[in-house]
Amino acid sequence: MTHSQTFAATDPQQINLEPIALVALEAGRLLMVTGGKASVVREGITLVAEGLGSERTDIRVGFASIAVTVTVAGRTITRMVGVGAHGVNMQLNHALREICVEVQRGGQSCDEVARRLTALAGGMPHYHPIVASLAAGIACASFGRLLGIDWAAFLPVLIAGTIGQFLRIQLNRRGVNGFVVTGIVAFAASALAGLMALWSHSGMLSIAMSAAVLMLVPGVPAINAQTDIMEGFPTLGSARAVSVFMVLVFLTVGVGATRIIFGDAVGESVGLHNHVLHQTIFGAIAAAGFGVLFNFELVTLLWAGVAGAIALAVRTSGLEAGWTLEAASFAAAVAVAITVEIADTLPVDIRRAGNALAVAGCIPMIPGSAAAHWIIGLLELTKQSPQNLEQLVNLTFQNGLRVIFTIGAIGAGVTIVASLMRRPNFPRKARATGRSA
C-alpha cells in the first residue's frame, strides 16, 4: 500500500497507518512552530488523522516533541516528531487550520496532504526584512511613548529598534541559538538607543534603552503559556513559561551589559504622563507594528491597530480612575477580546487572525520594561555589598509582582472571554481556494 492511498474504498485492515501518523504529526508540528497553543495543535492533528482514515487518535504535545498514536480496525501505531524552533507566523498558522478542516472531510491521500503542507510552509509570503525591521522600530518607539519617553528619545529608539530587529533576522537565518540572539540584539539595540539618546540630549536614557528592545519580549509565548495551563496542559504551559523566562534573562544580560558601559550616565528617569488620546494612538501603532512581526495580512494589521487602541484607551482610563495596573490591564484585555468576538460576526474577514488578533492588541500592555528592571534588580542583589539594600529589595519585588500579575491579568482576560464565547479554533469552512470545507 502506498502513501497515496485513499480511504473511501479501502479495506481498513489494509490501510497503512504510518503515513497517516507522519502527515498528521507534520501538520501539528507546523501549527506549533507558528504560534499555536496546545488545544489548536491537538485538534489540528486529530482533524488530519481522521480525514486520512484514523478511527482514534491519541496525542501528546510537548515543547520539543509531539507524539501521536493512530488506531484503525484495532491496529495501532505510535510515532513522534521533533518540533524545532518556536515562532509566530499567523498567516501560515491559520492557512494550516484551513487545510486541516479540508482534510477532515476526506477524499485526500497522504501524499497529497503532505505535498500541500510542504508547499504551504515553503510558499507563504513574508514581509521583507527591511519592512519587518522598520515595523519593529516603529513599534518600539511607540512603546517608548507609552512608557513616557520624551520626543528627543523617540527617533533614537526607532532607529535602534529597527537595526536590532534586522540584526535579529540575520542571526536567526544563520541558525544562531535563539537565546544568544536575544542577548546580542538586546545589547546592540539598547547601546545604540542610549548613545543616540545622549546625542539628542534626552533625559530618559534608561527608558529609551528598555524601549529599544521591547520587540524581543515574548508576548505571544507568555500568553500561550498561561492559556495552555488554564486549558489543562500544564506541562507544555510550564515549559513555555521557562522559555519565556530564559528570553527575559538573556534580554536583561544584554541591557545590563549596556548599563555597565554607560555607568552613571544612565541614571533612572521617570516617564512623562500621557493622557488617553496619546496612549490610544501609540497603542494602535505599536499593535500594528507587532502585527507585521506576527506576519498578519495587510487588512488584519488595521484590525490589530484597532485592538491596540482599545486596549490602551481602556487601560489608561482605568489607571486615571485610580485602578491598579493589573485591574486596568484585565479590563482592557476583556474589552479587546470581546471586540474581536463581535468583529467576527461582522461581514469582515478576520478569521485568519482569530484570537491572535486579541493577543496582538494586548501586546503593548506587556510590562517589558518592568521585567527588565526586575531581573536587573535580582542581579544587583547578588553583589557583595549592594547600596540601598532595602530599597533595592522593595523595587525588585514590586517589579516582579507587577510583571507576573499584569501578564496573568492579560492572559486571564483573553482566555475567559474565549472560553465563554467559544470561538472555534478551526474555521467552519475554508476561504476560496478551489475547495470548500
From TrEMBL:
One of its GO terms (cellular component) is plasma membrane. The chain crosses the membrane at residues 151-167, 179-199, 205-223, 244-263, 275-294, 301-317, 323-343, 355-379, 399-421. Its main location: membrane. Residues 23-257 form the Threonine/serine exporter-like N-terminal domain. One of its GO terms (biological process) is succinate transport. It comes from the Bacteria. The keyword Cell membrane applies. It is a multi-pass membrane protein. It is found in: Cell membrane. Keywords: Cell membrane, Membrane, Transmembrane, Transmembrane helix. One of its GO terms (molecular function) is transmembrane transporter activity. Residues 279-419 form the Threonine/Serine exporter ThrE domain. Belongs to the ThrE exporter (TC 2.A.79) family. This is Uncharacterized membrane protein YjjP, DUF1212 family. It comes from Consotaella salsifontis.
